[in-house]
Design a protein that fits this description.
This protein is about 50% helix and about 15% strand. The protein is of the alpha/beta class. It has one domain (about 1-240): NAD(P)-binding Rossmann-like Domain (Rossmann fold). Helix 1 packs across helix 7 (about 200-215).
């Protein structure tokens, strides 16, 4: 199987790549930092004897996305899976009053994903099979005062993926919306998180690979986040707006 991972320098993406390399799949890793990417790709090649390619990818450089995909297909021949693993948490308090920070959050987490998907979708439609997975977040299920700039971008992406799933179902292409809860990564370092609810990137990666193998529609990782978010969504707005969450 041939897998394209976008945002491959993230902690979760690296853990997914290692699991796929261990299974013997061919990988194409893409991210902004080529130096780290090359180092990681060579590590996978040596440790797992995997076939790994890499290239620069910037989610917000929209004009480059068409030529990027062409170069991937030229090198790999075909793509079976695509995983969108890039994201930017940003400074939530600053984003409320600083449009440039808000713009960066929205462009990286939402518009960047839509831009590359508009290149990937026609290829997958014509191919008639494959899996598209995108890492969104439980933060996109309901706006909370502590992270609604980020949550709104991820929530928008989830709605887009839902429509895309409906469109591609009859084409034989599966679309997986991956919603992790709290994950111990550099992006969440320094945040005051409930430690019992924080998962390791390795735990999350295992569930991501399983969900994509099974062609799930929406998957909460770990599973108990589905229950947590169901409860949060059911809290009446007059009560919810008074909560400090």
């Amino acid at each position: 199987m041939k897998v394209l991972i976008l945002g491959a320098n993230s902690a979760i993406a690296k853990a997914v790549a290692q699991k796929l390399a261990e299974k013997g799949h061919e990988l194409f890793l893409a991210s902004r930092n080529l130096e780290d990417l090359e180092r990681f790709a060579k590590h996978l090649t040596i440790k797992y004897d995997a076939k790994v390619s890499w290239a620069k990818f910037d989610a917000t450089d929209y004009d480059s996305h068409s030529s990027f995909l062409r170069s991937v297909l030229k090198r790999m021949g075909e793509i079976d899976w695509v995983l969108l693993a890039f994201g930017y948490l940003g400074d939530q308090d600053r984003a409320v009053v600083d449009f440039e920070e808000l713009k960066r959050i929205v462009e990286t987490n939402y518009l960047g994903a839509l831009s590359i998907l508009t290149q990937i979708v026609p290829y997958m439609e014509e191919r008639g099979r494959g899996v598209i997975g995108a890492i969104t977040s439980v933060a996109g299920d309901r706006g909370r005062g502590s992270n609604f700039p980020y949550g709104s971008a991820k929530g928008g992406l989830s709605i887009y993926l839902s429509g895309l799933r409906n469109r591609l179902f009859r084409k034989g292409v599966k679309v997986v919306d991956i919603k992790p809860g709290f994950v111990d990564t550099p992006m969440t370092e320094g945040l005051d998180l409930p430690r019992r609810l924080v998962s390791s990137p390795e735990r999350v990666a295992k569930d991501i690979v399983k969900a994509m193998e099974r062609g799930k529609d929406v998957v909460y990782i770990p599973w108990y986040w589905a229950l947590i978010m169901t409860i949060i969504r059911l809290i009446p707005e007059p009560i919810f707006k008074r909560l400090r969450i």
